[in-house]
Amino acid sequence: ALNAGCDMSWDMGMVPDMRMGAYPNGTVARAMALNLTTMDTVRHAAANTFLQRFRVGLYDPPSHPNPWSEIPASVILSEAHVSIAVRAAAESHTLLKNNGVLPLVATHTGGHLTIGVFGSIANNSQAPIDRYSGSPDAQHKSNYLQGITTRAEHGGHTVVACHAQEVPSACAAKLLARKVDVVVMVTAGYPEAEQHDRADLGMPSDELALLEAVHSTLPTNVKKVLVIVQGGAVSTEQADARVDAVVWAGKGGMQAGTGFARVLFGDQDFSGRVAATVYKRSWANYSNFLDTSISGNGTAGRGYRYLSADARRHVLYPFGFAIAYNQYSVTLDQPTYTITAADLKAGKTLQVTATIACVSGPGLPEDFCSTGGIRSALLYLSGPRQAMEHRHSLLHDNIRGIDALPVRKEWLGDFSKVRNFTTTSPSVATASFALGMDVLGRWVPDGSASSLSFTKGMMEKKKIGIHAAVPISAVCFQKGVFVLSIFVFGATYLRFGAFCLRFGAIYLR
């Protein structure tokens, strides 16, 4: 890894020895002893690492303090910055399941709402911020209970909360006595940290017991929303039959509660997407956790690019998955996109644009697209197997064993957050993407291709289940060419168009 450019290494030797330039019992020292690396390589890596530290001012003398270290809290926690934190939180929450319960106001026709909030993370202000973060004061933090309560009271609704110390039966009894209309459970998976692996990919047993107590006690007409606050993916299989909606929150930051309340009540649409493949609990037994190779040596594989067909049976939500309140569809803005190899090498980019049309979801105001519409579009690239194998052979001399990697059809090339939908009917907005040499250069590594040309072709439409684990690929009927496709997730439909290319393939989800 050091030779390949990984400049930082966790060297776990116990006694430092400056003559070795590293810990004598550590990995770098052992690599040098085996002639696997050189002192020049170590010096180069150390210089790169310390250069960044000098740049950020870690070694500035007290007589010449770094100006960035003098910024007061009043600036860091200014109204403008807090507003950005709210926006980031609102746009990062990801809607995974919705059986008509969300948004709360639009789906509830009875006027006043009584909302129950419970779960181990509901009233925890630090959990959404996590480790290695700054510590804003309480005035500038908003946990989930606080965010939901503030927004509910603004709309004339009532919030009933269970505290973390209450036993499941007591919490369920309280919610029943207060005649809640909907409950929101805010929880997490098993603890995760450095040097601490999770015991299970699912939810902890005590949280499941709490959910079961609430579910079995409340009337069946009380809707239930599950919110997962966790840095890593959590399987919600065990809870799925007990809840009407599932939201993955990740780590929403200091304004996680306020941001979540925006999407919960329908002030704006959900726009987050699954940032990492969410596996079923069975994945722990199916895969070999000691095998960290991307390809899995021809077995399970890792991630959306290299998972084997059999391994995809153990995926609950694929990378990039999301649903939304509104219905979105997409079309390219022009039939052909072309860029020359010379322009790519000169630093220019291929500009790809698409128009996303929006129709307000059921029960929402007709103008919700323009007032609350927002969509994250993901641009994927793919190519025919023979081109990928050619590319692998070019890299074989530098990366050992790369020709053994399985060839997958797609990988993320670019993304665009689409806002500002028009007030017209239909409501539309433009998604813009830029593909440069770093992305398209794999198709012209030796300058053999004079240009890349993208031409429009056929259109298709297929239905997928909400838990679809295997991405649907478009098929181009012209032999030996690539495919350009545009994907947009709706609540239950995946719409896409397939476009035949001369040199490349794009998928826009």
Q: How would you describe the overall organization of this protein?
A:
The protein has 509 residues and is of the alpha/beta class. Helix content is 25%, strand content 22%. It has 16 helices and 19 strands. The chain has helices at 27-33, 39-55, 73-76, 79-92, 104-107, 144-154, 168-177, 205-217, 237-240, 256-264, 283-286, 303-306, 341-345, 368-372, 385-395, 437-440, and strands at residues 94-98, 114-118, 158-161, 182-187, 223-228, 245-248, 278-279, 315-317, 327-332, 336-340, 350-359, 375-382, 411-418, 427-435, 451-455, 459-463, 482-489, 493-501, 505-508. The chain has a six-stranded mixed β-sheet, with helices on both faces. The protein has a six-stranded mixed β-sheet with strand order 13-12-19-17-18-16, with no helix packed on it. Strands 9-11-14 form a three-stranded antiparallel β-sheet. A hairpin with a 3-residue loop joins strand 17 (482-489) and strand 18. Helix 4 crosses helix 10 and helix 6 (144-154) crosses helix 10. The longest helix is centred in the first third of the chain and has 17 residues, at 39-55. The radius of gyration is 26 Å and the shape is globular. The chain starts with 26 loop residues before the first helix and ends with a strand. Mean pLDDT is 78; it is low at 12-23, 384-407 and 456-507.
Q: What is the beta-strand fraction?
A: 15-25%
Total of helices: 16
As a whole number of angstroms, the C-alpha radius of gyration is 26 Å
The portion of residues assigned to helices is 10-25%
Strand order of the largest sheet: 1-6-5-4-2-3
Largest sheet, strands/sense/barrel: 6 strands, mixed
Question: What does the overall shape look like?
Answer: globular
Give the overall average pLDDT.
78
Structural class by helix and strand composition: alpha/beta
Any low-confidence stretches, pLDDT <50, length ≥5? 12-23, 384-407, 456-507
Number of E-state strands: 19
Q: How far apart, in Å, are the first and last alpha carbons? A: 33 Å
